[in-house]
Amino acid sequence: MDPQGADAHPDGLVGVIGAWFQTEYDEPRPTVDLPVEVASGRDDALCIVDQVIRGTGIVGRVTGDFGAVALKVRGTGKPVHVRVDLQLDDLSTRWWSDRVRPRRFDPERPRLVLVRAQGEIRGAAVLARRQGWRGAGSAQASVEFELAADDLDRDGLLVVEVAEAARPSWSDNRVSPRSALGLRIDTILVREQGSSAAAGFAPTGCDLAVLQPGGPKSFRLDVSSVPLAPPVARTPTTRLTKRKPARAAFKLTRIARRAAIRAAAQALPERPGTGLGVLAADLRTGAPVPAEVVGRRPGSFDIRLDTVPEGPVLIGLDSAHPGLSCRIVPNR
After folding, report:
1. What is the pLDDT of residues 130-144, one digit of tens each?
2. Is 283 exposed, middle or buried (0-12, 13-18, 19+ CB in 10 A)?
3. Cα–Cα distance between 142 and 269 in angstroms, integer?
4. Does any domain span residue 23?
5. DSSP notation for 290-325
6. Are 217 and 309 in contact (CB under 8 A)?
7. What is the distance between the alpha carbons of residues 89 and 107, in angstroms, rounded to a whole number?
């Protein structure tokens, strides 16, 4: 049993239980002043990781159904702006397929994740890779949000988490299960509010899009053609498939399949039809969000929600269209 007062701080503050087990090799983490841009797992500001493997050129890679990192940042008593950059690359897909084990010829599906900070949902992201002639490119997404002054004290932790979203039933078979697994956290940027430009809306590369909390309740949804998703890459697991001749044959087969998919998509691209509809759901609960289509144009919809969204909202076409990409454009 710990003696009374053993965890007490000399200045009268309550310390962490077990702090007296600190060794001479343990170095205290410095508190970093704003602005902060963390782009490596070796950065001094990064003090805690949970289900994240640290990187050198990136913050880290998520190894489970969620991943969290904590930065030791000194607040200024003012609101701050935070940007979290995520990326889905080929290694992300391999990590995912080695653990989920999808069917061999299944195509990649988009990843849909929430971004939390200080325990609260701050936004969401959808990432979808598209097929090139030889390989699939990476998909990037940035989630930006504001933190109030009391969310970040002068010597506290900023905890950022990438986690699974509460998906609606209509997104089944349109989004990857365990979407956070393998994702890269490239950069975390923290600076005082008002010192950065507003985030833009880029095409998502799939038939889904995310409207961030506080986003416009009236906007345009542009729909365009994109190449199909690549087949899921799988790491050899048996003694036969691990041999170099077998691996070379599998690689040539995979390249041929990818080239055929890209050629077919370029020769016969999917076009937005006239009978498409739109669905919406709250990613905090998976509950439906009323979304009214108030206007239609070739390749776009004018959409209006009842209220300004308090949480991230998933916007999607009312049926799966893997050859189409959505983009949210706020009305002026």
Report:
1. 866 566 788 999 999
2. buried
3. 28
4. no
5. -EEEEEEETTEEEEEESS--SS-EEEEESS--TTEE
6. yes
7. 15
**Cα distances (Å, whole numbers) of residue 78 to 81, 103, 148, 191:** 10, 50, 7, 10
- At 92 the three-state DSSP class reads helix
Q: For residue 92, what are the contacts with CB-CB under 8 A and spacing of at least 6?
A: 61, 182, 183, 184
Query: The dihedral of CA 253, 256, 261, 262: what is its sign?
Result: positive
Number of independent structural domains in the chain: 1
Indicate whether 6 belongs to any domain: no
pTM of the model: 0.83
What's the CA gap between 3 and 11, in Å, rounded? 18
Hey, what are 178's tokens? 């365990």
Domain with 313 in it: 28-330
Q: What is the pLDDT of residues 286-313, one digit of tens each?
A: 999 999 999 998 889 999 999 999 999 9
Question: What's the token pair of residue 123?
Answer: 């936004």
Half-sphere exposure of 116 (CA within 13 A, CB side): 18
Q: Answer whether residue 89 is part of any domain.
A: yes
Tokens of residue 160, six digits: 């950022």
Please give the DSSP secondary-structure letter assigned to residue 48. Answer: E
Does residue 253 lie within any of the structural domains?
yes
What is the per-residue pLDDT for 10?
39
Tokens of 85: 């950059």
Say how far apart CA 159 and CA 71 lie, in whole Å.
6
φ, ψ of residue 95 to 5 degrees: the values are -60, -45
